[in-house]
C-alpha cells in the first residue's frame, strides 16, 4: 500500500494554469485572403471569409472547411477583376485607328502583357533594367498582380523576337507590292566612338500615304565610298529591294564613289538606264548649310563672340552695358569675347536674313510630308534673296551675298549638275506643272541656258514616262482583260448573253483600249502626260491647304501610269536630316544605354521603334517646355504665397497632377 501510495503521489495532477494554456494561433498563408475579408467569432477564432468583390460569404474554420471553396470562387466571381475566366466579359478600350477607339472584350493573358511591356520599352526608349525596378514592380502588383514580371534577359529576347516579326511583315509588304522606294543615309556615333550608318526607306503606298521606315542601322568601319556602298548593297540584298528611285546623301566625294558603284549594281539587277541616271540626290539642307557658313565667315569675329556669349550671358546683356558705365576696364579682364555695342547692332542686322535660311531649312527637311515638289521653288527664292543681298547698300551684307552666291552657283548654277527629279516633282504638282518653270530657269541659269534646260526637262520627262509605259502597260492590260472575262462569264452563266453586234463592238473597244494602254494614250494621239500638262493648273488660295497626295489619289484612275510615276517621284526626300535635328550642333549621338548594347540589339531597338511608332508621331519634347516652365512658375507662386502667410501648405490644394491645368 505504501508503495502504491508513493506511486500515486508521484503522478502530477493538472493545475488551472496548464488547463487554460493554448497553442499560439498560426498565421493564414493562403493567397485567397488577398481576395477575402476575414470574419472572426466572439472567441477570436476565424470563422468566415467575405469576398471583396461581391456579398458572398464562406465558412472558413481551418479544421472544418479549409479554403478550397473560396479559391474556386475567386476564379468564377464575375466581379473579380483578376479572374482569368468569368461568366461576364470585361470591356476595355482598344485603339482601332489613329483617331478612333472601340470597346472590346478583355481577358488577362500573360504573353500579351509581356509583348505590350516589350513594346513600351522599345517605343519609350527605356533600359532593360527598368523591369527590375522596385517602383515598376510595386505598380504592377497593384495594377495587375497576376502578371509575372520577366527578367531583363527575357525582355531582351522578347524585343529581338518582336524585331524579327516586324521585319518579316515589312519584307512581305515590299515583296507583295513590288514597292519602289527612295533611300536616305545618315551617320550616328556612340559614346565609344563607333560609327553607325542609318538607312531609311521612303515610299508612298497604294493608299497614297507617305511612309518612312528605317531598314538598317549597322556599324561601318570607315566613311570611304566602298564601305558605304557595301553597307547599302548588303541592306538591299537582305531586304530584297531592287526598285530604288533615288538615294539622298550628303555632299561628300566618298558618296559620289558609293553612288557610282550602286548605280552599276542596280543596272545589273535589272534597273533601266533611264531610271539609273536619277539615283544620286544631293541633300539640299547640307548644301544650304555650306552656303550660309560661307556667308557667316564675313562676320567671323563677331559671330564667335556671340556664340561664346549666348552660352551664358544673353539674359545679362543690359547688365554688361550698365557695368561698362561704372568700370570700363572690366572688359580687359574678360578678354575679347565681350560683345561691344556696335557688335550687337552688327549682328542684329543679320537676323532677318538668318531667319529666312532657318525657315527654308525647316520646310525642306520634313519627313512627314512631301518635300520634292518644293525644291525648285526654294532654290529660286534663295537665288532671289542672294540677288537682293548683292544689291544692298550695306557693304557687309553685300559682301556676304557675293560670297554666298559663289557657293550657290557651285551646286545650283549649272543644271547639268542637278538631279532632274526635282524638276519632275514640280511638274507633277498640279498647282505648278510647267506654268512658272521657264521663268524660274531663266532666273537661275540665265535666258539661253534656262530655255535649253526647260526643253531638256520636258524631253527627259517624256522619256521617263515612256519607260513607265513599257513596264506597266502589260499589267494594266492583263488586269483589264481579266475584268472583261469575268464579266463575260457572269453574263453567260445568267443566260443573258449579248447579241452578236454587241460582242463585236466590245471586242473592238477592248482592242482600242489595249493599244492605248500600250502607248500610254488617252485622248486621240495624246498620252496621259500630254493630257495632264494640257489641263489648267489647280488654282488654290495661299491660305487654303492643298493635299497633293489626295489629288493624285482621286485622279489616279484618269492617269493610271502617270500616277505611278508621281508616286515614285513625290516620295523622293530632298534632305537626309529630319527637321527636328537639322540645326543640332551636337550631331547624331547614341545615348549611354544604347551605346552599351551589341550592334544587333541596337539595330533591333532603333528599327523596331521606328516601325511601331505611328507615321505622324515624331518626338518633340521641346514643344512641352513652355508648359512645363509655366507649371513650375505656378507652383513657385503657390509656395511663395504660402510662405508669406506663414502656412505650411499651398493655398490651392492640388490632389493630383492630372487635376492641375497647365494649359490655361
Keywords:
664 residues, three-stranded antiparallel sheet, 27 helices, 12 strands, extended, disordered N terminus, disordered C terminus
Account of the 3D structure:
By secondary structure, the protein is α+β, with helices and mostly antiparallel strands. It contains 27 helices and 12 strands. Strands 8-7-6-9-10 form a 5-stranded mixed β-sheet.
Q: Low-confidence stretches at least 5 residues in length (pLDDT < 50)?
A: 1-12, 490-505, 579-587, 618-625, 648-664
**Strand ordering within the main sheet:** 8-7-6-9-10
The residue-averaged pLDDT reads: 77
SSE class: alpha+beta
Biggest sheet statistics: 5 strands, mixed
Number of helices: 27
Q: In percent, how helical is the residue content?
A: 40-55%
Radius of gyration: 37 Å
Q: Which descriptor suits the 3D outline? A: extended
Number of strands: 12
Distance between the termini: 104 Å
Amino acid at each position: 500500500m505504501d508503495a502504491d501510495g508513493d506511486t500515486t503521489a508521484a503522478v502530477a495532477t493538472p493545475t488551472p494554469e496548464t488547463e487554460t494554456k493554448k497553442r499560439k494561433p498560426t498565421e493564414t498563408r493562403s493567397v485567397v485572403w488577398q481576395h477575402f475579408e476575414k470574419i472572426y467569432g466572439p472567441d477570436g477564432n476565424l470563422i468566415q471569409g467575405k469576398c471583396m468583390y461581391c456579398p458572398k460569404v464562406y465558412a472558413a474554420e481551418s479544421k472544418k472547411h479549409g479554403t478550397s471553396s473560396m479559391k474556386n470562387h475567386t476564379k468564377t466571381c464575375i466581379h473579380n477583376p483578376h479572374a482569368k475566366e468569368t461568366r461576364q466579359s470585361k470591356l476595355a478600350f482598344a485603339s482601332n485607328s489613329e483617331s478612333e477607339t472601340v470597346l472590346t472584350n478583355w481577358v488577362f493573358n500573360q504573353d500579351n502583357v509581356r509583348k505590350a511591356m516589350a513594346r513600351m520599352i522599345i517605343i519609350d526608349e527605356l533600359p532593360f533594367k527598368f523591369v527590375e525596378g522596385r517602383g515598376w514592380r510595386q505598380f504592377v502588383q497593384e495594377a495587375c498582380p497576376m502578371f509575372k514580371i520577366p527578367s531583363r534577359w527575357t525582355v531582351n529576347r522578347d524585343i529581338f523576337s518582336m524585331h524579327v516579326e516586324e521585319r518579316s511583315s515589312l519584307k512581305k509588304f515590299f515583296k507583295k507590292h513590288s514597292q519602289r522606294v527612295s533611300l536616305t543615309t545618315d551617320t550616328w556615333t556612340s559614346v565609344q566612338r563607333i560609327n553607325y550608318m542609318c538607312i531609311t526607306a521612303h515610299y508612298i503606298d497604294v493608299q497614297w500615304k507617305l511612309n518612312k521606315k528605317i531598314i538598317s542601322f549597322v556599324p561601318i568601319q570607315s566613311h570611304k565610298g566602298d564601305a558605304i556602298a557595301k553597307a547599302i548593297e548588303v541592306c538591299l540584298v537582305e531586304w530584297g529591294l531592287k526598285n530604288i528611285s533615288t538615294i539622298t546623301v550628303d555632299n561628300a566625294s566618298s558618296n559620289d564613289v558609293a553612288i557610282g558603284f550602286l548605280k552599276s549594281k542596280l543596272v545589273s539587277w535589272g534597273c533601266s538606264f533611264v531610271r539609273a541616271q536619277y539615283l544620286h540626290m544631293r541633300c539640299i539642307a547640307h548644301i544650304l548649310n555650306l552656303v550660309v557658313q560661307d556667308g557667316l565667315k564675313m562676320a567671323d569675329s563677331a559671330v564667335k563672340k556671340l556664340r561664346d556669349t549666348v552660352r551664358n550671358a544673353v539674359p545679362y546683356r543690359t547688365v554688361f552695358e550698365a557695368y561698362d558705365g561704372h568700370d570700363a576696364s572690366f572688359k580687359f579682364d574678360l578678354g575679347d569675347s565681350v560683345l561691344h555695342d556696335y557688335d550687337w547692332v552688327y549682328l542684329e542686322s543679320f537676323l532677318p536674313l538668318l531667319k529666312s535660311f532657318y525657315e527654308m531649312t525647316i520646310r525642306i527637311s520634313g519627313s512627314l510630308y512631301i518635300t520634292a515638289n518644293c525644291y525648285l521653288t526654294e532654290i529660286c527664292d534663295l537665288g532671289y534673296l542672294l540677288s537682293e543681298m548683292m544689291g544692298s547698300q550695306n557693304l557687309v551684307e553685300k559682301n556676304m551675298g557675293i560670297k554666298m552666291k559663289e557657293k550657290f552657283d557651285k551646286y545650283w548654277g549649272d543644271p547639268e549638275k542637278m538631279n532632274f527629279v526635282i524638276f519632275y516633282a514640280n511638274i507633277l504638282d498640279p498647282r505648278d506643272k510647267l506654268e512658272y518653270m521657264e521663268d524660274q530657269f531663266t532666273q537661275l541659269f540665265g535666258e539661253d541656258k534656262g530655255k535649253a534646260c526647260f526643253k531638256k526637262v520636258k524631253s527627259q520627262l517624256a522619256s521617263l514616262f515612256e519607260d513607265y509605259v513599257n513596264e506597266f502597260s502589260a499589267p494594266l492590260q492583263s488586269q483589264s482583260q481579266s475584268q472583261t472575262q469575268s464579266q463575260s462569264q457572269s453574263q453567260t452563266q445568267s443566260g443573258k448573253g449579248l447579241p452578236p453586234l454587241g460582242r463585236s463592238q466590245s471586242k473592238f473597244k477592248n482592242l482600242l483600249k489595249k493599244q492605248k494602254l500600250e502607248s500610254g494614250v488617252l485622248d486621240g494621239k495624246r498620252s496621259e502626260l500630254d493630257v495632264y500638262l494640257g489641263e489648267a493648273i489647280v488654282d488654290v488660295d495661299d491660305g487654303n491647304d492643298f493635299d497633293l497626295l489626295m489629288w493624285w489619289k482621286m485622279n489616279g484612275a484618269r492617269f493610271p501610269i502617270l500616277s505611278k510615276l508621281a508616286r515614285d517621284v513625290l516620295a523622293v526626300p530632298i534632305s537626309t536630316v529630319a527637321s527636328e535635328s537639322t540645326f543640332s550642333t551636337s550631331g547624331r549621338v547614341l545615348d549611354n544605354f544604347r551605346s552599351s548594347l551589341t550592334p544587333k540589339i541596337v539595330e533591333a531597338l532603333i528599327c523596331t521603334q521606328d516601325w511601331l511608332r505611328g507615321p505622324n508621331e515624331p518626338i518633340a519634347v521641346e514643344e512641352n517646355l513652355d508648359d512645363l516652365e509655366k507649371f513650375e512658375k505656378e507652383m513657385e507662386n503657390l509656395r511663395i504665397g504660402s510662405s508669406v502667410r506663414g502656412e505650411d501648405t499651398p493655398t490651392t490644394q492640388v490632389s493630383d497632377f492630372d487635376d492641375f491645368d497647365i494649359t490655361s
